[in-house]
Amino acid sequence: MFFSGFFGYIYHIQQIVYRLILPRFILFYKHTLIIRKSYLEKELNTLTNKLLLKESWNFDNSYIHLPEKLFTKQDPAPVKEPKLIALNNPLAKELGLNVKELESNEGIEVFAGNRIPTGADPIAQAYAGHQFGYFTMLGDGRAVLLGEHISPSKNRYDIQLKGSGKTAYSRGGDGRAALGPMLREYIISEAMYGLGIPTARILAVVTTGEPVYRKTVLPGAILTRVAASHIRVGTFQYINHYGRTEELKLLSDYTILRHFPDYIADDNRYSYLLKEVIKGQAELIAKWQLAGFIHGVMNTDNMVISGQTIDYGPCAFMDTYDPNTVFSSIDVNSRYAYKNQPYIAAWNLARLAETLVPLLHDDQDKAVQIANEGISDFGKIYHKKYLNGMRAKLGLFDEEPEDESLITELLNIMVKYKADYTNTFRSLTLNNLNSMDIFGTEEFKLWNDNWNDRKNKQNKSSEEIFQLMKNSNPAIIPRNHRVEEALDAAVSKDDYCLMDKLLKALSNPYEYSSEQEEYTTLAPPMSTPYRTFCGT
Q1: What is the mean pLDDT of residues 316-328?
Q2: Which residue spans within 179-275 are E strands per DSSP?
Q3: Pick the residue with more confidence: 439 or 27?
Q4: Which helix (H) or strand (E) segment is 112 a member of?
Q5: Which residues contact 365 (CB under 8 A, 6 or more apart)?
Q6: Distances in Å between the alpha carbon of 178 and those of 162, 320, 328, 492, 536?
Q7: What is the pLDDT of residues 467-499, one digit of tens each?
Q8: Which of 5, 69, 252, 345 is the most exposed, having the fewest neighbouring CB atoms within 10 Å of its CB?
């Protein structure tokens, strides 16, 4: 009886264990395994991202071997809560970077300046410059150069964080940047790239989670800029003014090796350097003028030796054709108006030539002569490039003596009737001569007859002429009201749909697609002229 009761009790306990306790224990054990697995997967992903970061960035920093006078070692200042706002996937792939890696927490920390990637050696660069004609000591006041990345195609690119905090050259500034101007630089630089105009590009934009204080409180941001280099006319001015001739020579030799390595050893290498820079700038400014682009602050510190467009501040594209157009709120004397850009470029290059005089020849008079001859080439090269570009916009394959007057007459008519620059050439390309008031004027009709006579002189088909014009006249540009619309939605509403849509349309401005039609419309009339601001 005792044993029967005892075993019954044991059986009862077993049933409790099997039915109640054991399932709960198994469930707890499984849940523990799931948590442990999730933790291990997270750790593995973090480790993988770290390894990818080490393998993906390929830094080989050469600028830091120049005289220390040209830079200061400088880490970016960390930020509180970085958030990735924009990532330029095509550029990332061109650089040989892993997009998923860049989107990871580790990647975002790099863009925010919170983490220094393996191989980087951050510096702030020193330079001087003529700002609105006045010489001053400058430098990277809110930018840090992480280093030089070598792409799979063996091209060397500067990777720079802009808005990354105070440096030795901040001159009382906070070293930070607001979101709006950083997004503007992203939009405009990608538009320039699509137009085929040499430009620095933006790899990423992150918000910092911290405010910046300008006229109002604005969300802070940091952009990652990719450029052939950040060697400026102002870099040469700085070393010429504050350094020694030997240091100037080292900078010049480095620049030749980095950007113009094809020089013949028997030539005067410093004369060659000057000529190549002049040639590149003449070609660049011609492309600006042909597209109706106005930089806004053509100070010598904003002109890079590589021939790229850089330092987008109060820039914009012209709508109504007017050579006197100025957008920048700080350009009160119209120094950098559209019509003045070629002359300012030549003036800036004359400042570069001045710095090279000690290297051009042992005889100073001969050195000055070489410098003057180089500068005189700018006007010739620019004029030729601009005329050839305008010929292409009008479907002209060859050269005739009357071409320049034909071009000038059209532009004068456009000024008189306040015609939209981009849409005039777009309509001529499409032979849509009912789309604008200018086409109904007697002046245009006479000009059109002369233009048709000129086209008939060349042995080209209508299709060939159309293709040349289509490839030379963008259907769209980043119109100011569209840019402002996208920026307002992004900054005020945290809505990036308009910006993404605009960037997609601008990626191929010569496509002439139906999706681009909405971006050809003009802005509503404004009571005051459109103005842009530096954002510093």
Answers
A1: 96
A2: 201-213, 217-227
A3: 439
A4: helix 105-112
A5: none
A6: 10, 29, 18, 12, 8
A7: 999 999 999 999 999 999 999 999 999 999 999
A8: 5
Please give the distance of CA 164 from its chain centroid, rounded to a whole number. 17
What is 362-384 written as a DSSP string? SSHHHHHHHHHHHHHHHHHHHHH
pLDDT value at 3 more than 50? no
* Element containing residue 484 per DSSP (H, E): helix 480-493
Residues 6+ apart with CB under 8 A from 477: 191, 195, 291, 292, 317, 422, 506, 509
DSSP state of 125: E
What gap in Å lies between CA 216 and CA 392, rounded to an integer?
A: 46
What pLDDT score was predicted for residue 478?
Answer: 97
What are the residue numbers of the active site? 301
Instruction: Give CB contacts under 8 A, 24+ apart, made by 502-508.
Output: 502/187, 502/478, 503/187, 503/190, 505/476, 506/187, 506/190, 506/191, 506/194, 506/476, 506/477, 506/478, 507/190, 507/194, 508/194
Token duo for residue 308: 């790229």
CB 360 within 8 A of CB 372: no
Cα separations (Å) of 87 from 308, 353, 515? 21, 39, 23
Dump pLDDT digits (tens) for 338-374: 999 999 999 999 999 999 999 999 999 999 999 999 9
Q: How big, in percent rounded to 5, are the helix, strand and coil portions of the chain?
A: 55, 15, 35
The structure tokens listed for 272 are 């060659």
143 φ/ψ sector (left φ>0, alpha ψ -120 to 50, else beta): beta
- Residue 1, exposed/middle/buried by CB under 10 A (0-12, 13-18, 19+)? exposed
Over residues 30-58, the mean pLDDT reads 55
Return the H-helix or E-strand segment holding 393. helix 364-393
Residue 216 DSSP symbol: S
Question: C-alpha angle with apex 17: 12 to 23, nearest 5 degrees?
Answer: 145
- Closest among 280, 282, 314, 287 to 298, alpha carbons compared: 314
Of 428, 438, 433, 435, the C-alpha closest to 320 is: 438
148 contacts 60 by C-beta, under 8 angstroms: yes
Radius of gyration of the chain (CA): 30
Query: Which single residue is written with the structure tokens 């970061």?
Result: 53
Number of Cα atoms under 13 Å in the Cβ half of residue 359: 25
pLDDT by residue (tens digit) across 229-254?
999 999 999 999 999 999 999 999 99
